[in-house]
Amino acid sequence: MANHKGSEGTVHVGTDAVAEIRSYSFEETVSTIEDTTIANDAKTFKAGQTSFSGSVDVFWDEADTAQIAMTVGASITIKWYPEGADSTDKYYTGSAIVTSINRSATIDGMVEASYGVTGNGALTLSTV
User: Fold this and answer.
1) Which of 56, 61, 70, 64 lies closest to 23 in space, CA to CA?
2) In which element (H, E) is residue 122 found?
3) Most C-beta atoms within 10 A of its C-beta, which of 76, 111, 124, 126?
């Protein structure tokens, strides 16, 4: 079984790699539909609709094409590459809407930004 260091990963918006990444996360979920009948002793469920969301935390870079493309309300294609973007690596891709941007700075730190996205359709596992 393979495992990977976090530093191997990258995130792309469209074809552009996001620069200055500090961390990222993404989550897939599925709703459940109860199908319990009166004859059941315990509740039962079926899988419903899937969804995904995620975030990318960066050192803010006003010259980065990918960061500039992530404006609140923008529809983007986002790709998460947990193991890198080399040939045969796996990655997750989907259409998403940028739902939030948080920018922050401290006197003894860097200017940072966090971009939140909500999926608009399915998240797909693909191979580079």
Assistant:
1) 56
2) none
3) 76
Q: Are 49 and 76 in contact (CB under 8 A)?
A: no
For residue 73, name the pLDDT band (cuts at 50, 70, 90): very high
CB 56 within 8 A of CB 115: yes
Alpha-carbon gap, residue 37 to 23, rounded angstroms: 45
Tell whether pTM > 0.70. Answer: yes
* Distance (Å, whole) CA 30 – CA 45: 12
Q: Are 95 and 120 in contact (CB under 8 A)?
A: yes
Query: Closest Cα partner for 16 from 72, 85, 74, 83?
Result: 85
Rg (CA), the chain: 18
